[in-house]
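Example record used in the benchmark description.
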Amino acid sequence: MKVRCCIVGGGPAGMMLGYLLGRAGIDVVVLEKHADFFRDFRGDTVHPSTLQVMDELGLIEGFLKLPHQRLQKMEGVFGGEKVRLADLSRLDAKYPFIAFMPQWDFLDFLRESGKRFASLNVMMSTEAIDLIRDGERITGVTARTPDGVIDIEADLTIACDGRHSLVRQRAGLAVEEIGAPMDVLWFRAGKRGDENENLFARVDPGKMMVTFDRGDYWQCAFVIPKGQYDAVKARGLSALLDDVARMAPILKRGLADLKSWDDVKLLTVAVNRLKRWTRPGLLCIGDAAHAMSPIGGVGVNLAVQDAVATANLLAAKLEQGCPSEDELDAVRRRREFPVRMTQRMQVVVQNNIISAALKPGNQPLKVPLVMRLVTAVPWLQGITARFVGLGVRPEHVRSGS
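Model output (structure tokens):
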């Protein structure tokens, strides 16, 4: 099998880039190792920047018909005191809200929408297991399919296979670890029709939790110190649920849905980035190039922005064959600044808020000065909303249709 471009990984970066290249008439295949897009944990916050991209592609009307919830005001309780972290209604954006939507619905929508492009082929249950080389150049991948192992030759291979990227590993690309002080326990609690609460984050001494109202259930992220999962598990599930119920009494009835630790998924948080995103014939984007902290829920949206920038910079060049490595590196030069700035802000939040909140003991928590200022001054809530909702240097679709 031979194609112009082989994309490894059917997450947000891979499916969006596949759609954009297919739309531009590039012969492209997307390899997704699973039979479907359903996962225990997938980021499901679709920010205004991504909604704008969907609008520019003419997909927004159908997209917003999918079941979703909308968030404009990000509010929380910090040591018993109510705070407002951002107000997206203050954004000068066409879609000034965050849409909460299961990521598998987002990816399925892109796959279905892309079926009209004859040049786009999405291969499910197809796992890249090695790279094909011609000297120093990457010339495709070896993949395992339900019908056996095949070689896919490609002028350009693009790694979108996530923070544990096999392609990145096989290419020998060095990762710079930045680190994170926490991991996350991810679970659902049942929700009744009369249970409504706008609080987004809760921080108590030694504990932190984020909740998302998903209509008929609460999606919960309980933050624990890095590497402490076994210790939390040793205390027992009932002890964890008691902590959750004390922090968020509205969840108390719904927590009965959690019967065992099988209902609680561990998300190991990593913050890192590649020093070099390319080899001849190869480019890494999305989490394969830079793993983000879940702070702000920006990972999906940065991956989409990478995909848009990649199509903008490379689609026309791909018509002639593989771009040079310098041309491939234009993607890093375009996207590295937004990645670094976003990770820098995530590290500031990690070091000044989350690490302090997760310290053992029962010392009263004081709301940090910057959080007090944002809560007190509405226009500052617009600045934080811009950073979360639109990000640094948002991308716009310029590749051909």
